[in-house]
Design brief:
The protein is elongated. It has helices at about 5-15, 25-40, 50-60, 85-110, 120-130, and strands at about 70-75, 80. The chain is built from five helices and two strands.
Length: about 130
C-alpha cells in the first residue's frame, strides 16, 4: 500500500526539474505542467494526496512577483485557493495584473517618448531600452 512518502518520491524529482513560476510563460501552460506532474501520482491512490495537497504542491512552485499566494482569490469573490481550478483562476488573474499592466505601462511610456535635438542615437537607445 502506497503512502505520502511514495507520492513525494515520485513527484518531487519532476517538480525539481520544473523552474519556479515568475511569469515566464502563460499561466495555462505552466498549470498544465504542474497538473501533469500531480497526475502521475494518481495511480498510487493515496488518500492523503487529495485536492488540497495537490494544490499546495502547485503553490510551492510560485516565486517572485507572484509570491506569496494568498489564502483567498481576490479575482474570484475571495474564494479559498484550496483546489487546482481555483489556483489556476488566481494565477490567470495575477498574470493579467502583473504582466499586462507592466506591458501597458511600458507601451504608454514609449508612445510619449520623443527624440530631442540633444540626443544621439546611443543616448536615445539607452533611454528607451532598459
Amino acid at each position: 500500500m502506497a503512502n505520502l512518502v511514495d507520492v513525494h518520491k515520485l513527484i518531487d524529482p519532476q517538480l525539481a526539474s520544473l523552474p519556479y513560476y515568475d511569469g515566464q510563460e502563460e499561466p495555462d501552460l505552466y498549470y498544465a505542467k504542474l497538473r501533469t506532474i500531480n497526475e502521475t501520482a494518481r495511480p498510487l491512490a493515496v488518500a492523503q494526496f487529495n485536492l488540497q495537497a495537490r494544490t499546495n504542491k502547485m503553490i510551492g512552485k510560485i516565486t517572485g512577483r507572484f509570491h506569496p499566494v494568498p489564502a483567498t482569490n481576490p479575482y474570484n469573490a475571495n474564494n479559498a485557493i484550496n483546489n487546482e481550478p481555483e489556483f489556476l483562476n488566481w494565477l490567470q488573474g495575477k498574470y493579467r495584473e502583473v504582466m499586462v499592466g507592466t506591458n501597458q505601462d511600458a507601451m504608454r511610456a514609449l508612445m510619449t517618448e520623443r527624440f530631442s535635438i540633444m540626443d544621439t542615437a546611443d543616448t536615445y537607445e539607452k533611454r528607451i531600452i532598459p
